[in-house]
Amino acid sequence: MQILNTIIRGQSDGILVPVPQYTLYSAAISLYGGYLVPYYLEETANWDLDVNNLRQSVAEARSRGITVRAMVIINPGNLTGYWGECGQRGGYFEMANIPPQTVDKIYKITSISLSPNVSGQIFMGLMVSPPKPGDISYQKNVVCNFTKGAMYSFPQIRLPPKAIEVAKKVGKVPDVFYCLKLLEATGISTVPSSGFGQKEGVFHLRATILPAEEDMPAIMESFKKFNDEFMEQYEEHRGYSRM
């Protein structure tokens, strides 16, 4: 609605609206003192846009002294998902050379909008500041590429030096040591990557994603709990980064 207030400067400013139209558009344009410029959709073509009719509507509006400033794109099928789902919505704008007092008013107006899109704001925040290693959304010292065409996942486990040292003392390769501890604590069976070959000092494990989808949240929670406790046990907090 605030955008309409910017677009419509007076009665000579028009907005193209498709017919049949959603009555909210005509009411809002009337509220802000603008002029509704109708253009007609082609029902026999599944409510498709008729470009010739659109041009005619613009020409007629201009002949009446109306300046077309915006266009609404929608059709009756949209309300039933004709064009597909819109997905999550998010947006932002930059305010430059605007007095601080005016900026405060803009924030105030925005904050009282009906039904703020909280999820959209969260997603927008994640876009401009995505999760980083060390954030709570990351498991400690675990990095994994996307699982694509198969049922296997191959995460890298960044083992603390103390864990590597203990593994060697008990005669185990470090990733074998981790996988055995995981199996003993949770029953989750994984394959240490030392059997596949890897760079020196880099450790992975291979997990086969076989459980039913509805069982995965509990399994991942169990794995996370074990991993957090394992890292906490072997981390050297002075000088060793949690990643």
From TrEMBL:
GO terms, molecular function: alanine-glyoxylate transaminase activity; glycine:2-oxoglutarate aminotransferase activity; L-alanine:2-oxoglutarate aminotransferase activity; pyridoxal phosphate binding
CC cofactor: pyridoxal 5'-phosphate
GO biological process, one term: L-alanine catabolic process
Top-rank lineage group of the source organism: Eukaryota
Membrane-crossing residue ranges in chain numbering: none
Pathway the protein acts in: Photosynthesis; C4 acid pathway
Pfam families xref list: Aminotran_1_2
Keyword Transferase: yes
Keywords noted in UniProt: Aminotransferase, Pyridoxal phosphate, Transferase
The UniProt record lists the keyword Cell membrane: no
Domain Aminotransferase class I/classII large per the UniProt entry, residue ranges: 4-81
Family that this chain belongs to: Belongs to the class-I pyridoxal-phosphate-dependent aminotransferase family. Alanine aminotransferase subfamily.
Subunit (UniProt): Homodimer.
The name this protein goes by in its record: Aminotransferase class I/classII large domain-containing protein
The organism's taxonomic lineage, starting at the top: Eukaryota, Viridiplantae, Streptophyta, Embryophyta, Tracheophyta
